[in-house]
Every structure is written in C-alpha cells, then in structure tokens.
Amino acid sequence: MFKLDTIISLAKRRGFVFQSSEIYGGINGCWDYGPLGVELLLNIKKIWWHEMTSRTNIEGLDASILMHPKVWEASGHLTQFSDPMIDNKISKARYRADNLIEDFIEKLRKKNKNDLADECEQRLEHAQEPSDYYKIIMDYGINDPVSGNADWTEVRNFNLMFKTFIGPLDDAASTIYLRPESAQGIFVNFKNVMECGRQKIPFGIAQIGKAFRNEINTKNFLFRTREFEQMEMQFFVKPGEEKEWFDYWKEQRWNWYVKYGMKPEKLRWKEHEKLAHYANYAVDIEFEFPFGFGEIEGIHSRTDFDLSAHQKLSGKKLEYIDANTKERYTPYVVETSGGVSRGLMAFLCNAYDEEDTGEGDKRTVLHLHNSLAPIKCAVFPLVNKDGMPEKAQAIYEDLQKYFKVQYDVSGAIGRRYRRQDEIGTPYCVTIDGDTMSDNTVTIRDRDTMQQEKINADNLKMYLFDKLHK
Ligand code: GAP
Questions:
Q1: Domains in the chain, ordered, with CATH?
Q2: How far does residue 83's CA lie from ligand 1's centre (Å)?
Q3: Could you tell me which residues are beta bridge partners of residue 177?
Q4: Which pLDDT tens digit goes with each residue over 113-148?
Q5: How far is the CA of 282 from the centre of ligand 1 (A)?
Q6: Which residues line ligand 1 (CB under 6 A)?
Q7: % helix / strand / coil in the chain, to the nearest 5?
C-alpha cells in the first residue's frame, strides 16, 4: 500500500489539489482544486447528479448556503452539533477528546495491553457528556502527545458551525451560520418541490452544495476539511416503509461506487454504534484509504425528525396527503449523504497504481473510470515537422469541442504516454507519417497499453463509443 503523501504530492504536482492561500503559508482544513482537480470534482458531481435526477421520482434543488437561524434551532444543530474538546495547558494543543482517547487505545493495543484497551473502549462507547470524556482522560492518565504532560483543561462542547453576521450590524440578532450540511435546505423546501414537481410519495430531492464545519482537528488531506461539498439526497417515504427504502438505497449507493471503478474489496459497511438523535437506522460506506478505513458516504433513516421539527418551529404544515386514501402524515426520510472531496480522494487512491512495464521500466498510472478521467484524450504529433503538428492541432481542436483533450508535442512519445497515465487519461492519439499518407492515427489504451490504428475520420465516433460505455 502506498502512502497518502504519494497522492498528495501527485495531486499538487499535476494540478489536482493545492493548499489554500499557499503563498501565505496556507490555511488549515481548506484546499483549492487546480485544473485537473476541478474537472474530477465536476465529473464526480455529474455522475452523481445523473444517477439521482435521471429517475422520474427525484427532483433537483440548489438551496442557499445562508439560511434562517431558526433552521439550525429546529434541526438541533445549535445545541447538538458539537465535538467534545480539551486543551492542554502547557502545549496549548487542542484535541477532540474522543480522538485523544482513541489514539490512546491504539497505543495500548500496539503494546498488547488489550484488556485495558477493551475496557477503555467500552467506556468511550458509553461516553456522552463532556465530563464522561474528562473522567476517562484522567482515570487512564492520558498525556498530551505533543508535550507529554497531563495538565488538561476541562472537556467542553465546541459547536462546529461557523458564525457570521447578516447585514451591517454584528450583534446577536444578526447572527447566522454557514450551513454544516446541505440537507436542511432540502427539508425546508420539501413542500415547494413536491408541489411544483407534482410528486407523490415516495420521492426524493437531490442537492449538491458546499457545507462548512469548524472541525477541531483537520487531518488526512481532503478527508476532514472545514469547507467541503456534499451530494445529498433526501427520499421521502411513508412511515413504516423506511426500512425497506433504507435497504434499497444502501444497495444503490454501494453499486454506484463499484460501477465507477471502486474496488469492492476496498469498501466496507460500518454500522453506527451510536445513532444520531434523529436516526432509527444508519450505516456508512467506508473506503480503505492509505491511513485506514474511513467513511465516504452515510445512509441514514432520519424518521420524521427534521420535517416535524421545522413544522413545529415554523408553524407551517409539512405534511403529505395521500390523494387516494386521504391519509395525512409527516413523511419519513431516508438520506444518502456523500462528500464530493472525500469521494475525490477515495477515487484517486483507488485508481493509483505503480506498475512494472517490463525491462526495468515503471509507470505511475491512475486507472480512473472514463467518466471520471479529467482529460479524456491526448493528441500527439509524432514529430514537430512534416505537417504533423498542423494535422494534430486540427484533430485536437475538433475533439476539444466535445470533451476535455490535451495537446502535447514535447519529449519522446513514451514520456508523453507516462505524463497522461499519471493523470488518468484513457486514450492517447498519435499522428505520424502514416496519418499523412493514409489518414490513419494510432490510439493507445491507458490500461492495456495496446495500440490500434484507425482512420482519422472515424476517431470521434470511436472515442464517443469508448467513453460512453
Ligand atoms: N446530512 C447528513 C450529514 O451531513 P455526515 O455523515 O456528517 O452526514 C456526510 O456527512 C458526508 O459528508 C460524509 O460521509 C463525508 O463524505 C462528508 N463530510 C462530512 N464532514 C466532512 C469534512 N469535515 N470534510 C470533508 N467531508 C466531510
């Protein structure tokens, strides 16, 4: 297994991901997507959007990031969306208390102190209040990994929502929040979308958009960031039918990742041990990153928690009336919630390979699914003379009208192939002497490295066919 640093370095070198505000030393938990990264992000969003909204019973939505503060009161985020945090008085380092304890348990296991580790793990599983975490840290004498001492503050709950002010006054009455999940924009629009889309239950609303969380510990590159995008779909169902739909969406979402190239052996289910206050079933799809398994998407059965809470606080009815039976109820919700940037990192890690190509030669290659590849095809003139650059340029300009293509004239053909392999370009087209005499071009396949000659007039159709398989 390669290291995460290998992916970070490739991502930077080839223009997938840069540190945000790098020239000022960067800002923690924020990343910028370069020319290839933005294409990959868009491709992930495109295939997800298509997967969801090509169904007749799923509508799209793009809700505002800034929402009425009462939304977060109703959803429980104002009081419940927090992490237990502890500060070390000497090093001033701040930790999530649960992470600090988890790291301690891991150390115990490495030292084969499994009984103690099990006992500590059990107590962690039952911890709910800040004082529970504090007691564990004290009882086991957990030290600060930075300074090595145990001079801790109390554990406090730290709300993860970013606060700002709306309008010119920065007073309490003007306080609003950057949304910590896109889902609430869907709940408050449930009725609008259902009515204008003339939808009947069961139906869903899909949305892709930014979410913000003031995470205490950002770590592992794009895994836990402070600004990220979510792809969320809330599926509204009749109460009592949520388990059936929960199982349905579990299967659909797993299959989606596999369809777009995720190796099934790198995925696993993680049942939630502690259910969130709003959920009656919840499961995560986890991917095996170089640092271990981590969640990439959650599937949650959220009951009628959100709609009921908004109904109560806003005083507006968010009910469904069955036209046939005249039954009236507040729908239950099954949610699928994936992170775009976490997905991007998982797709990159999944696709990354270092291969021996024989004769002591190695290549780095991204085996990205054709739909995800940022660049679909590269066009090379074999040499920079004899009319080849002009012909290659014309082919490049024609293909570029339909999908993202790169033109590359520098270096030996082998090196040009390697450059494209490293960014996951599925096809390379070379214009050579034969092209000038009989109009054939050579197409090279990234994965098999096989080459085939076809007539240049058929190139567009050939690529369309391959790319849309
Ligand atoms: N609406 C439900 C919800 O937001 P979540 O499990 O907190 O559930 C869903 O988040 C997905 O959003 C996660 O599976 C992950 O892919 C992504 N995500 C959550 N927090 C993130 C963070 N700090 N950085 C990057 N992605 C994050």
A1: 4-67+177-349 (3.30.930.10), 82-159 (3.30.40.230), 375-467 (3.40.50.800)
A2: 14
A3: 163
A4: 999 999 999 999 899 899 999 999 999 999 999 889
A5: 13
A6: 181, 183, 213, 215, 224-225, 228, 230, 232, 295-298, 335, 337-339, 341-342
A7: 40, 30, 35
